[in-house]
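Inputs:
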Amino acid sequence: MTKQVTQGHVCIDDLSITFDVRGGSMVALAPTSLELSPGSFTALIGPSGCGKSTLMNAVAGFVPATTGRITIDGAPINGPSDKVGVIFQQYALFPWFTALDNVRFGLKRLKLSKSEELDRARAAIAEVGLEEHAQKYPQELSGGMKQRVAIARTFAFGPQVMLMDEPFGALDAQTRLVMHDLLLRIWEKHKATVLFVTHDVDEALILTDDIQLMSSGPGRIIKHYPLAEPRPRKLNRDNVHLLETRDEIIALLHQSH
Ligand code: ADP
Ligand code: MG
């Protein structure tokens, strides 16, 4: 379980992002610094519009830095990278591919032999518990199953950094709990560095090593909460620190509305 992780070190230094909008510009992210150690699991939480997706899209290389810089293992991010996997709330699966072929598509960049590619895709599908559904198309799968395919597709190519933007936001509460267990299991095995955007304070408390709380006007990180509790975690009276952290974050989120 305590596998030594040496890759996936993300350094965000004084990153700011300004968008051109009609009649001028708007600061989506004020200068922000954040370091993610290899294999860590960090939450970004904050009110809608505070720049969570913007920060994540910058790490993904989809949005350029206006000032400052981002490096992964010392290499500057100037565009999408093979080191980085991204999962969004909308599953972004190809409707014309089966679950298995969606995962295989994600592996194309590795240029494996056909049989290696198939073996790896099958293993990834099995890892997320979808062996029975490998030949189904996305429209035949539930929301939770589609997100499992997306997780399999992304982890299968072995990214050092995994960016997840409200990945479980569209799922019902029960399915979300199942997905938490699944994600923790896969993360503990692969030990990618995870940056996870969520609206759900409890989800951040259950999953992550550190909660980075953002605020808007302009978007920035205002405080962070390291969490050292062993997993699996429960939000009950045995974990007073988690409950106190929850109260404080909820109070700060209320203030910023
Ligand atoms: P969050 O994910 O925290 O809800 P976003 O990062 O999506 O917030 O957006 C932060 C701010 O930047 C919002 O005011 C949003 O409208 C604005 N914004 C995001 N993307 C763009 C863009 N491409 N062009 C102009 N404004 C944008
Ligand atoms: Mg967003």
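The beta strands are 10-21, 24-36, 41-45, 67-72, 75-76, 84-88, 161-165, 193-197, 210-215, 220-226. Flag for discussion at group meeting.
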